[in-house]
Amino acid sequence: MTLRVNEIFYSIQGESTYVGRPCVFVRLTGCNLRCAYCDTRYAWDAGEEMSVDRILMRVAAYDCPLVEITGGEPLLQAETPALVSALLRKGYEVLMETNGSLDIRKADAACVKIVDIKCPGSGESRQNDFENLNRLGQRDQVKFVIGNRDDYEYAKDIVLNRCAGAEAGHLLFSPVSGKLPPDRLARWILDDRLRVRLQIQLHTILWPGTERGV
Ligand SMILES: C[S@@+](CC[C@H](N)C(=O)[O-])C[C@H]1O[C@@H](n2cnc3c(N)ncnc32)[C@H](O)[C@@H]1O
Ligand SMILES: Nc1nc2[nH]cc(C(=O)O)c2c(=O)[nH]1
Ligand code: SF4
Ligand SMILES: [Mg+2]
Predict the structure, then answer these.
(1) 212 in a structural domain
(2) pLDDT tens digits, residue range 32-70?
(3) What residue owns the CA closest to ligand 2's atom 14?
(4) Cα(162)–Cα(203) distance, integer angstroms
(5) Over the chain, what is the mean pLDDT?
(6) Does the structure show a pLDDT above 90 at 91?
């Protein structure tokens, strides 16, 4: 009854509507996708087996009410729902960053899911489980990481035709870091009057060039 954990660290939340808040990150090992742009390849394998209780102790040491479970792909591990529920029972605000290929109902509805819809440039868009768009809770967020104009058109079509239930502030468009200049994505959004939220990874601005632990 353990989870494979790649790293646990304390940083400023760099993504989602929670951006800017101090947050503890539990990064789980392993992923079922291989996105072309993935900035966290080091989490595809290396990691240490930890019990839920040990993870809770490591998290508690940071004295921070906000915790994000990420990876790798958190929903791949059988014990992840138990970890989420244990954190919620301790009173933490819990976020989960997930790649959109797996059923988000596996984890407690009180955990805020940030659900990627993979665009064609990732090479993994066939893996999207669009049923997740019908499973969103009120605070859940849908995220598109966009590397070029094709990705943008793909994301725009989904936002306009398949995201009726989601609040505009919870639809996130983020450029692939180092690939698509953020101002280009900003221009496309403004020109199309798209009701989405542009996001630039804050931690890459705060700590440029640092791959782990931020
Ligand atoms: C590393 S993933 C871990 C969680 C899950 N596997 C997923 O893809 O959502 C966390 C977030 O980082 C985003 N991401 C990864 N590489 C990126 C890059 N080069 N530029 C911008 N966002 C990136 C992913 O799309 C995802 O939204
Ligand atoms: N600071 C910081 N914020 C983040 N938000 C989501 C992250 C992730 O890798 O899932 C992440 C990350 O790696 N670092
Ligand atoms: S799903 Fe997430 S962790 Fe997996 S390869 Fe894609 S961005 Fe990286
Ligand atoms: Mg990251």
Answers:
(1) no
(2) 999 999 999 999 999 999 999 999 999 999 999 999 999
(3) 214
(4) 30
(5) 97
(6) yes
- 141 within domain boundaries: yes
Give the per-residue pLDDT at 7: 98
Residue 12's CATH number: 3.20.20.70
Which ligand 1 atom is the nearest neighbour of the CA of 38? Answer: 16
**What total of structural domains would you count in the chain?**
1
Mark the binding-site residues for substrate, compressed into ranges: 12-14, 27, 70
Mean per-residue pLDDT, 82-111: 98
Residue-level pLDDT at 167: 86
Asked whether residue 39 is domain-assigned, the answer is: yes
Q: Using CA atoms, how far apart are residues 132 and 57, in angstroms rounded to an integer?
A: 32
The domain of 42 spans: 2-206
CA-11 nearest atom, ligand 2: 1
214 within some domain: no
Assigned token pair, 117: 């819809």
- 199 falls in which pLDDT band (50, 70, 90)? very high
Distance (Å) of CA 142 to CA 71, 133, 190, 198: 17, 8, 19, 12
**CA angle centred on 138, ends 152 and 67, rounded to 5°:** 85
Q: Which of 19, 99, 170 to mutate to test the pocket of ligand 1 (most atoms within 8 A of CB)?
A: 99
The residue whose CA has the least distance to atom 4 of ligand 2 is 14
Nearest ligand 3 atom to the CA of 145 is 7
pLDDT, mean of residues 138-144: 97
Strand partners, 166: none
